[in-house]
Amino acid sequence: MKKALTLNIVLLGLVSLLTDASTELMAPVLPLFIVSLGGGGLALGLIGGLGDGASSLIRLASGYLSDKLGRRKPLVAAGYLTSSASKLLMAFSPSWVHVLGLRVAERAGKGIRTPPRDALIAESAVESQSGRAFGLHRSLDTAGAVVGSLAAFLLVSVAGLGFREVILLSGVVAFIALLPLIPVKDVRRKPLKEKFASAMVSLPRRFKLLVPVTSLFAAGNVSYMFLLLRASGAFVGWLTVAAPLLLYILFNSVYAVLSYPMGALADRAGKVKVLASGYLLMSLVFALLYPSLSLPLVVAAFVVYGVSYAMIEGVERALVADACGELKGSGLGLYHASVGVAAIAGNLAAGLIWDYVGPAYLFIYASSLTLLSALLLAAWGASSSLKAPGS
Q: How far apart are CA 328 and CA 109, in angstroms?
């Protein structure tokens, strides 16, 4: 049984690796594809905003539903299948309006699968090893992002493939990603009898106090696109385009390599300590990008950016899963929905600051919120009644 559950985590990691490779393969060309179909700034905003909004809200329902069914895998499979089909069909879109509908469906698929998948990962590992479990998953997921980014660069810049061909290939890879999901074993549990509102109320108090902290951090942890735009100012000529892509690959490479070791460290030293340290490092990243830029400063910032993500992404999910108690699907659904909505609001605020106040002030905003999140998390850890190992 233990061996099968360990295999679950590896298989789910492989699914995420291939899925993220598919996503990152499409990501660089999608805005250009939309423009080629007649879309402008409004189209890009609608496609990005509605997609992310749908994903965030659906997560709340899918997490609860997985508790209600007492099964995780059917929803995980449905979510991945929805995303894969949407990506494949996107290559045949005759207008940006079709891309809008399919992109919302693709992000909705991500919303359907994420909470039950994270619950399945948590239930496929003993709690004292949950940091390692989520760390391995994040490591494989991010390795896919590196592969996808490199592939996109080579296919467009070297092979000269068109936008439709690249998006079609992305859809094919997304369907291949479904294969490792087939042997994943569901961790059956007693179906939840409580209604949605009752389930939300029943979540542990320590969890309810943790989610506002993670949501505040999500609001301050602005999109990597702002960091890349800021970093491009340190370069001239053709490097203003090439260097940000290389920095993005550097960030993801550091993140992928360190995610599992940081998860293991969290299991040994305590998840709150590692996560709070990651929040502090993220605050430092934004502080480094506030002043006048230089090449060494930018490279250092993106290395630290990768280290901080390795300390945050998997460890935060593991800590939240621990704090949920028995209602892991419902709790993780609420967590993902909350941080998703906070991220949308935070990035909207960041965009307004960038346009109307100045890029440098965006990084003061981001550094301040992430620093405050670190202090609040430390206070939560000191006062929480959570006594489980690794908490």
A: 19
Phi, psi of 44 (to 5 degrees): -60, -40
Q: Taking each helix axis as running N to C, give the angle between helix 328-356 and helix 295-324, from 0 to 180 degrees, rounded to the nearest 10.
A: 150
The values of phi and psi at residue 222, to 5°, are -70, 160
* Buried residues in 185-223 as b, exposed as e (16+ CB within 10 A): ebbebeebeeeeeebbeebbebbeebbebbbbbbbbbbe
Beta strands per DSSP E along 192-253: none
- At 102, which amino acid appears? L
Cα of 137 vs its chain's centroid, Å? 12
Contact partners, residue 332, CB within 8 Å, separation at least 6: 63, 114, 115, 118, 119, 122, 317, 320, 321, 324
Task: Read off the tokens for 213.
Answer: 């902290």
Fold of 1-181: Growth Hormone; Chain: A; (1.20.1250)
Per DSSP, the three-state class of 64 is helix
Length of the chain counted residue by residue = 391
- CATH fold match for the domains 1-181 and 199-384: yes
Question: Do residues 88 and 203 touch, judged by C-beta distance below 8 A?
Answer: no
Which of 227, 162, 173, 174 is closest to 32 using CA atoms? 162
CA pair distance 69, 238, nearest whole angstrom: 54
Q: What is the pTM of this model?
A: 0.85
Q: How far is CA 140 from the centre of its chain?
A: 13
What's the rounded Cα separation, in Å, for the pair 120 and 74? 11
Is 122 within 8 Å of 130 (Cβ atoms)? yes
CATH superfamily for domain 199-384: MFS general substrate transporter like domains (1.20.1250.20)
CB of 146 within 8 A of CB of 21?
no
Each domain of the chain, given as residue ranges in start order, spans 1-181, 199-384
Helix, strand, coil in percent for the chain, rounding step 5: 80, 0, 20
The identity of residue 139, as a single letter, is S
Interval 38-61: pLDDT, tens: 887 667 767 777 777 788 889 989
* pLDDT tens-digit map of 115-134: 999 999 999 987 778 899 99
